[in-house]
Amino acid sequence: MDYTYSLLILLLPLLSFLVIGLPDFAGNKYAWSHKTAGLIGTCSIGLVTVLSYITAFQYFTAPRLADGTFATLVPYNYTWLPLGNLHFDLGILLDPISVMMLIVISTVSFMVHIYSFGYMHGEKGFQRYYAFLSLFTMSMLGLVLATNIFQMYMFWELVGVSSYLLIGFYYGLHAAVHASKKAFIVTRFADMFFLIGILIFGYYTGSFNFSFTGTEVHIAEGMTAFTTCDASRAAAAGGFILPTALVLMFIGGAGKSAMFPLHIWLPDAMEGPTPVSALIHAATMVVAGVVQIARLFPIWIEYAPQAMEIVVYVGAFTAFYAAAVACAQSDIKRVLAFSTISQIAFMMVALGVCLPGHHGAVLDNHAQLGYMASLFHLFTHAMFKACLFLGAGCIIHAVHSNEMSAMGGLKKYMPITHATFLISCLAIAGIPFFSGFSSKDEIITACFEHSQFIGWWMTGVAAMTAFYMFRLYYGIFWGTENKELHAHHTPHEAPLTMTFPLIFLSIITVGVGVFTTLGGFMDWSWASFGEIVSAAGTAYTVHFAPQVAITSTVIAVISIALATYIYKGEKQPIADKLYKTFPRLHRWAYKRFYMDEVYMFVTHKILFRFVSRPVQWIDEHIINGLIDFSAWGANEAGESLRPWQSGDVRQYAVWFLTGAVALTLVLLSIL
Amino acid sequence: MDYSQFFNMIPEAGLIAVLVIVFLADLILKGEKKHSVLSLLTGALFICQTALCFYAEPASVFGGCYESTQAANVMKIILTAGAFIVLVMSQSWLERADVKNKEGEYYELIISTLLGMYVMISSGHFLMFFLGLEMASVPMACLVAFDKFKKNSAEGAAKFILTATFSSGVMLYGISFIYGAVGTLYFGDVAAQISASPLTILGLVFFFSGLGFKISLVPFHFWTADTYQGAPTAVTGYLSVVSKGAAAFALMTILMKVFAPMVEYWEYLMYIVILLTITIANLFALRQKELKRFMAFSSISQAGYIMLAVIGNSAMGLTALMYYVLIYVAANMAVFTIINVVETRGNGNTKMNCYDGFYGTNPKLSFLMTLALFSLAGIPPFAGMFCKFFVFMAAAEQGSTLAYLVVFIALLNTVPSLYYYLKIVKCMYINQTETPLPTFKSDNNTRFALALCTIGILLFGVCSCVYDWLAQAAGM
Lengths: 671, 476
What we know:
Mean pLDDT of chain A: 83
Largest interface: A-B, 30 and 38 residues
Strand order of the largest sheet of chain B: 1-2
Helix content of chain A: 55-70%
Number of helices of chain A: 25
Strand content of chain B: under 5%
Distance between the termini of chain A: 68 Å
Oligomer: heterodimer
Number of strands of chain B: 2
Strand content of chain A: under 5%
Shape of chain A: globular
Order of helices and strands of chain B: HHEEHHHHHHHHHHHHHHHHHHH
Order of helices and strands of chain A: HHEEHHHHEHHHHHHHHHHHHHHHHHHH
Distance between the termini of chain B: 36 Å
Number of strands of chain A: 3
Number of domains of chain B: 1
Helix content of chain B: over 70%
Structural class of chain A: mainly alpha
Largest sheet of chain A: 3 strands, mixed
Strand order of the largest sheet of chain A: 2-1-3
Radius of gyration of chain B: 21 Å
Structural class of chain B: mainly alpha
Low-confidence stretches of chain B: none
Radius of gyration of chain A: 28 Å
């Protein structure tokens, strides 16, 4: 069984990037037509999707190893830079996480490619847009397929660059430029810690590889040896080294995954085209932090279980904070952005609560649950959140505004968007038979295993999720219609290129939901996500804890009912009254609890004034002086040397001989 | 005599064949088509020659006079490829009326010098080496004087030949000292018998000064600026890249092989010369207003960096040296190709200020020039950064305090070099002028040469296979 074709998964999007991008870069007259460019991009991603499905089928149907895990395969491994024992490799690693991520990325990316045909129709820079989408897809696939942390970091940065390029796609708009800069700077700031973490890790363990001592790696024939990373070497160097390295790497992951307080870039990133938000800032790139922790999970568990608590509490706070902000936003993309932050925080918490401590050193079933649930939520969230964003795109396309005030009553104009949006809202709210229920319920069960506090806390956040999502839903599709605006421009359903991805993604949401919900209650092993991805690698059948399932369902239903009661009607007396009673709270939440202002204060008022200004003064007066002095000295020296180069050949010969003799004398003096 | 020994000298035999074919073609061909046929033929032969070098095996023939190693063969590939780029880029200049009728001579002279370099880098005997060196120098003087009706060109050539003669004399003197001390001129025998004494040290320094002249190391560099400025730009490119690379390689192998017992002396010598070279060349380069003269000082300073690899005195140093030369070929030839095309189109002007506003009129050429200059300055991620890194590493591996000090000072010297390379970039992008150079379309040959160089600049650094290939050849 070979996977030689897996290289194509990376090469095709790269090729498509070059084929679309280079002529466009060369000038308008060389660029492909809109249609051709779009087709090249979409077809190549379509092929990648097919290849990913084939890979997944081949991988998950292959027999398991003797110990019940799936084989970790390395079809390609190329040593790029050898530096003594440590080397930087580039390759492809297939294991349950990467194969699962292949499916998520290629599916969402393919849907977004199709969708963009309609959404970006006639936009200036259409070719550039598709080129960047291909670049992003390539980078993201490379990130999950990486065989080692360093390769992951390289693609991690590429992902950051393509995100920057796509957020700033409308570079004529000030807000877009500002947002792209902000996203890049904040994530780069976090990545700095990631890099330091990687270097510490590599230095002490002697390898960057993801395969850890004890895992069996199957390398394709003809490949060089694949060193496994021996973490015990680092542990021997000192107990704090690995936890430090891991926490530093987590900061990098927190930056990309928009964890508090590094979340500030994500809401602004919504300035990019909406399909981009769906692909990058909802489904794929922002979960890179989760993937990173899941990848390094064996090391976290064995060498830094205490540090895991940081992940838990950062995640738990972020989940609550983002949900609270989402309740007060009026821009629909911002609501979805904060909802994304909150949901990723769910995944983080779920990873963090996998502590072996409660049940002995070895991971048992309960501790495994969180890991599995986190990645399962990653999968389901990618599908329904992409669907929500794409739906939001259809709505924005129809009413030409992001503000909820321009919407309301769109139900009758856009039936398909409405239906798919509702399905996704139900999924994210955690209603049984929709995919979000299965994953979120498992996360909450895992949280209760960790502690009652975290369990109830996350249950509360889940309730808030249901509430703000239905506030959004009713605000868009029900409620008062903005007649004035709609008379001017009647909203209409989006074209098929845009509705097809919605339908496709909601079918996945419902399908996965039905099977896993039934499976969870009936103990069907084949319908359990734990069959393919689990912490120990062995098959793991999910079984719902009835009390948690019932509690969370009831709470979700109550929240939805509350949202219905408040926001469904044409008039919203309760909402107005609430708003009047707690104006300050609303303003705080609307302003995102002034986190941006805090950053501004810290950077401008404190850093710039008390650090940068003095440094600037030193730079201007002392360092510049020194530099000017040495430049002046060099110039003067150059000037005074000039007569030396006189153009007189006889003089050259004299210097030649003098030089030779002088050198001889120096050498003789050391004899 | 056993003529079959020539079969072990594949690169040289092949190049002689190329020389004969080009010579005959030059005689036979007549009429309108001559230029295109001759240039295509030469180009094709060069490609064959490069391919042929891949088949060369290490050999020792004629009683050890000729000794070719794997590394020397790889070096020949690099030199031939460099000469090929020179031929391609000089096409636009060769179309000029007063040069066109001498086209054949130009090719023949280039091939002869290349043959001399081949002999130089794979000799096993001092006399053989000297022959090669002279074979590489004398036709070079003709090449420098190729624009013989231009005063500059003639002056440059006169200075070149006079200094070359002088340095050859000093070198022969040095070789005779060595012969006097050990009684043999075979490299292997000298290495076995030589030991440090005033006589051999004098021999070493005098021998070194001859090669120092070819590599243009301070204080043997004075001819460089005048000759580089006077010579036709294509020839300047050839001098600064191919000729220098061959001499640097020869110097390193001879120091490592022949003067191995005197290693502490020649390393001392290298420390002094490197520091002088890099520092003084940088000081001169800072003030230059004339681009070709500027490139002369830039190439002197680059030679100093190449010599850092020699300090390494190891297979790794040899690898770093070849790698540096390879990348230097790409970056420097790109710069000279652009200088050449600007000179041809811009009435022979090579002043730096004639590049003011160049970006406005020729954005693509400015962009490629910027890439090449960035590579020369060693800015990542271009190849130049990698080759600098490897020579620094090779020198630092040597491990003595002095070596670290030299590396440190060389590192400090990259700062002013960054400044003067960026000065040209500033001219092109920022300086504005009323009369920028007009927009022109470069011909296909220039484009081809630039494409080859740019691929080198972008890929040689990132593709580790190139370095691996050289490392394997150097026996690392």
